[in-house]
Amino acid sequence: MARSGDQALGRRPQLSDEVAAYVRELIMSGQVAHGEFLRLERIADDLGISVTPVREALLSLRGEGFVTLEPRRGFMPAPLSRQDVQDLFEAQAYFAGELAARAAERVTEHDLASLDRTQDQLEQAARARDPEAIERANHQFHRVINKSAGSPKTSWLLQLVVRYAPRRFYSSIHGWPQASVDDHHLVLAALRSGDAEAARHAMRAHIRHAGTLLVVHLEAQGFWDAPGDRRPPAG
Length: 235
Known about the structure:
mainly alpha, Four Helix Bundle (Hemerythrin (Met), subunit A), two-stranded antiparallel ribbon, disordered N terminus
């Protein structure tokens, strides 16, 4: 389940924050759902770390209302409805759209060249079905736009919401890599033309599209079925 390089987690600062991000992604990608317990030892083994930062991360997620603690039994994800998922992506779409609109008015030729290179990398990674390269290129594409916007507070607000998106497992969601490739072209076109409203619309449509694909993915995995009825994750 852990991606290459997860062993390096133990050398990073704020390890419990890294683990919390990993657990959020496990839940949001449908790897584990309400009614199933989060096994501390399994998570620690997957990340190549001790159990202590895993416990700290789960306590932090409990404070966010993202997991619950069952006395003498352990931690499990809090209930997460379809509407919850849609709300998270709607909030993400709002802030990402605003940043794209502001970027359209400030983006430089250097930024556009960087976006073109990154988009090429994304398309190559999608053709090669390389999940880590897909994730890196997609992250870099959005990072360039968000930095170009020159709105650090709005970027910070976006980051608060984005942490609930399963970035690490996005490439495993059916249709997502190609949808990302296609949607980015519309965003790029709006940025090149300096059309703030078109950039806002294209980015919000892109994020909402991702949210819809995630809901479909979770439904296919039986995420909202009773625990005993859930199908195992594909692959």
